[in-house]
Amino acid sequence: MHNDRVIDHVGIRVADLNASQRFYDTVLPVLGLERHDDPTYTEWGDFAIGTDGPVTKHLHIAFFAPSHDLVDAFHRAGVDAGYQDDGAPGPRPQYREDYYGGFLRDPDGNSVEAVYTGRTRETGAIDHLWLRTRDVAAIRRFYVATGHAIGVDEPDHVQIITDGASFSYVTGEPVTEHVHIALSADTNAKVDAFHAAAIEAGYEDNGAPGERAEYHPGYYGAFVLDPDGHNVEAVNHNR
């Protein structure tokens, strides 16, 4: 898997579907994301929630906003509806010079952000993820083995680069649990290669390459578990 890939989607599992639907219905439409329901999950853009497994905990996910005003509106919508403030809108120059973010907590305690930077991205697109891990080196080995591009490469922080977004694993407690990260591939062969590389390197299979027509015709994916047990997928939407 190489740097021509993008984050195709991110999925989390929630303790109370109705409660989480209310939260994300409150804040994500501010960023122009429409809700779509499926029998097993609810999605807004490239982000989905469901109840078909252990609850996702201690994740940080940020959605792109094209202006400071939209970051403010996202945060205000959540706070006005009674959700927990996790950081008022404002500049965070420690991240980058033009970084402006506002943070909330979802009903399961995950950190959810709207962020503006000088980058050009689609409104509401996933901008970045942060996951905490006990072993950054083990995570790095997994992503190198499966052909991903590494950005920040430090003993306590490894950043995986995709076209448009990034996700990072950092040392810390409590560790992030039960996240699904799907990265796009433009051929079925690249999906196969991702899975084969992971298995050859000793990582756990979580779903062999193949079409998953239950998602949609032409959905060709493969799944493996990273060292922290997160479900990492390569997917090609081939029609």
Automatic annotation (TrEMBL):
UniProt keyword annotations, A-Z: Lyase
Gene3D superfamilies in UniProt: 2,3-Dihydroxybiphenyl 1,2-Dioxygenase, domain 1
Annotated VOC domain residues: 6-117, 125-237
Gene Ontology molecular function, alphabetical: lyase activity
Keyword Isomerase: no
Protein's UniProt name: Putative lactoylglutathione lyase
Organism (species): Solirubrobacter pauli
